[in-house]
Design a protein that fits this description.
172 residues, alpha+beta, Nucleoside Triphosphate Pyrophosphohydrolase, 3-stranded antiparallel sheet, 10 strands, 19% helix
Amino acid sequence: MRGPNASSPTVLLTRRAAHMNTHSGQIAFPGGKVDPEDVSKQATALREAKEEVGLDARHVQIVGELPTYVTGTSFWVTPVVGLVSPDFQLRPNSEEVDDVFEVPLSFLMNPANHQRHAFDWQGQERHWFSMPYLETRPTANGEVEAIERFIWGATAGMLRNFYRFLAANPMS
C-alpha cells in the first residue's frame, strides 16, 4: 500500500527483459528457479525479489503459498504471497527486468477484468486468461502517459486462482 493510491493494496509486477531466454517481455511476478542453497520456496521467492527488483526480505511479511501452478510449457510455479511494507525503494535489475509496476489489487480481483481466451493447439483446445490494465503515470514534463500492461498466461492464471481463493474464503 503505497504511492498515489496508498489506501488501496497493489500487486507488484515486472516486465521481463527482452533479452531473456524464456518468456521475454512478458508480465510476471518477481521470482524464479529454486537454487540449491534455498531452504524453502519462500526463501527462493525472497531471494529472487531482491535480485530482480531490489526488494529486501525485511520489507516482506510472508502470508503463505497458493497451490502449485503448472504452465502449458511445463513450468511448476508455487506462488508465494506476501505483504510488502510501503517504504521500500525499487531497484530493478536491468539484466532480468525491463520495468517494474504496481496494479491495484481491486482491479485484478474484479472478474469483469478477467478475459478468457481459447485457441486450438496441436488438435486440442487450450484456454488462458488475460487482464489488460491501462496504467497511467506522470511524465517528466508533468503530463500523463498511458501504458498498456497486457497481463496474460501464467501470471493471469495465478491471479485468477488467487481471486478464486479469496472468493471462496471471504474475510469476516
